[in-house]
C-alpha cells in the first residue's frame, strides 16, 4: 500500500512546475496515513492525518533545500535533474512517512478501536520528537540502501 502512494508522490513531484511538488504531495501523504489507519481499524479524522503527516514528513527536508530544487527547475540544463531529484526525494519521504505511520498506528490501535484518535492521544504514545527521529532514521536507512544499490549496479557494469 505504501508503495503505491510512494509512486503517486514521486509522479506528482516530477511535475516540472516550480514550487508545486510539495503542495501536490501532501494530499497523497495524508490519504496514505488515512489508508493505513483504516487497515489498522483506527478511526482518524482528516485533520489528525494532516497533523500527523506534516509533523513527521515536515522534518524530512529543510525549506531551503526544497527551494533550491525548485529554483533549479527554472534553469535550462538543470531542470531535468532537479525534477528527477525531487521525485526521488519526495518518494523517499513518503515511504519513510508510511513506515513511521504504520509503527505508530500499530501502537495506538488498541486504544482507538471505539473512538476517533486525536493528535494528543498520538502524542501520548510517541511524541513528535520521537516520531521525527524515527522518520529521519528511516530516511537515512533508505538513502543508504539506495546508495548501496547504486554502487553495486555501477560495479557490476
Kindly describe this structure:
The protein is mainly alpha-helical and 157 residues long. The protein has one domain (2-145). It is 76% helix and 0% strand. The protein contains seven helices and no strands. α1 runs antiparallel to α5 (79-108), α2 packs parallel to α5 (79-108) and α5 crosses α7 (128-156). It starts with a helix and ends with a helix. The relative contact order is 0.16.
Helix content: over 70%
Can you tell me the residue ranges where pLDDT is under 50 for at least 5 consecutive residues?
150-157
The tally of beta strands, per DSSP, is 0
* Distinct helical segment count: 7
Mean pLDDT: 82
End-to-end CA span: 33 Å
The tally of structural domains comes to 1
Q: What is the percentage of strand-forming residues?
A: under 5%
What is the helix/strand order? HHHHHHH
